[in-house]
Amino acid sequence: MHGLARTSPAEEAEEAEEATLAALLRCCVREVAGPRGLVWPAPPYLLLRVGGALLRARTRGGAALRFEGRPERLEAGAWHPLTTDELVRLAQADLGRGAGPGHNEEFAGQVAASRTAMAAILRARAAAVPPADPWLASEQALVYGHPFHPSPKARGGRGWLRYAPEAHASFPLRLLGVRADAVAQEGDVTALDALGEAPAGHRLLPAHPWQLDLLRPALGSELVDLGPGPVVMPTSSVRTVYAPDAGVCLKFSLDVRITNCVRKNAWYELAGAVELTRRLTPIFADISRKHPGTRWLPEPGYRSARLGTRLLEGLGVIVRTGPWTGGSPGVTPILAGALAAGTPRPEALSRDPLAWWTAYVSAVARPVLELYFTHGVVVEPHLQNVLVGLDPTGLPVEAVFRDLEGAKLVTGRHDLTGLAPQVARAVSYDAERGWARVVYCLLVNHLVEIAATVAGHGGGAVFEEEILPELWKAAREILVQQAGELGWPLPLSDLLAGSPLPAKANLSVRWARAADRSAGYVPIANPLA
Fold first, then answer.
1. Which end of the chain is more exposed for a tag (fewer CB within 10 A), N or C?
2. How far apart are CA 19 and CA 512, in angstroms?
3. Domains recognised in the chain with CATH numbers
4. Hey, is 68 helix, strand or coil?
5. Looking at residues 381-397, what average pLDDT do you find?
6. Is the pTM of this model over 0.85?
7. What angle do CA 135, 264, 283 make, to 5 degrees?
């Protein structure tokens, strides 16, 4: 059974073009036309002006901006189909007039490269066999990437397709032996030693073969190449892989740009993962007592080679607890991003969309808010960082939080003395920045997209129009109840009063060629109001 029905190269290219155009248009609504007041509802269309041109798109799904059919451009009094290349030129005209850089010669190429990568993924996926593991299949389901990113499938380097999760890739790790006096490690890394056997006087260090190809000129005599290791499967982040025999995930560095960032484990992030695991273990135990469906995936240790910063970071691997460890019987973890994309479609969702949504919001949102307000802990519950545990009928009963790179401690709520300054900065946010990140990840990136999928599951625009307000009314009731339990903290009160939501400005940060951590936010309407 192949991943998709056989398609022609022309069909794959057209599908990639439509998805790329839709993602870029969403970015233009939020970051180009919206802030200028140049977006107007004209049901069933949304009108906007970009680069001086009037555009329209048939839309559904509320704030998620799900489009139907090809967007169009008004020219000489008639509507004509819009292309990605045209929209890139129009967006560049507006972006070049802003306060930031007046020109970015890389931008058009990045959008085009993402579109080409998407077509290659569709072609490879059609010929591949999907994994039998339902969780792993969900990790590999994000064919179109971030719905509000101008180049959602941008991949740096060459040969990336053989490591692409969306193509159902699998590959053997490369095993290295690190001389014992050159090992850098912290925490519990016993899972690494089970991956193979190192020669006497050495410790075993698994390496991602793609990363090793990039670093090979820098390898020295302190490292021994032990050849291929166990076969692993990439998860949605590309650089984190699942080692099924060991039952763990391994988070590697990759010195290539994936969407916004070069994905590398900085030395302070290696140390920060272990520090956060130590500090968050008792906190998540408390959260799980209050919200029994809450789980998390600790990152108990890392190992690398102490051979200069480039190799320390480039070869650093973080051990992450596997998603099937400690799960409740009969509960299947599924990536939230796959549910937002409509794969799979749980039976319980078809039977009662409102009840399914209520269970979902309760499972995901309540522990996130409890963590922030009670414990001063920020998690990033975006669609790629949350696994939702579904019972045998497909009803959400658990939420599993992962990736401690995005987890932070609110400054002033935790004692960070004794940590290296870079580590302390890496594991902390001030309260305002932390709250903005929580609201963006939980609501804008996550629940807005899930709500659109739930509404669209019933079929038909009338159903969507009727149920979306009911979904957000139910979500509001859940959050109002929790606000009372938490003593009505001001940020949550403001959120429930209708304060605008912060949407991450992915288009602007790509245009500015800035680091992802410097991305700002643009305000969007709050569906809880």
1. N
2. 23
3. 9-133 (3.30.310), 170-322 (no CATH), 327-497 (1.10.510.40)
4. strand
5. 97
6. yes
7. 60
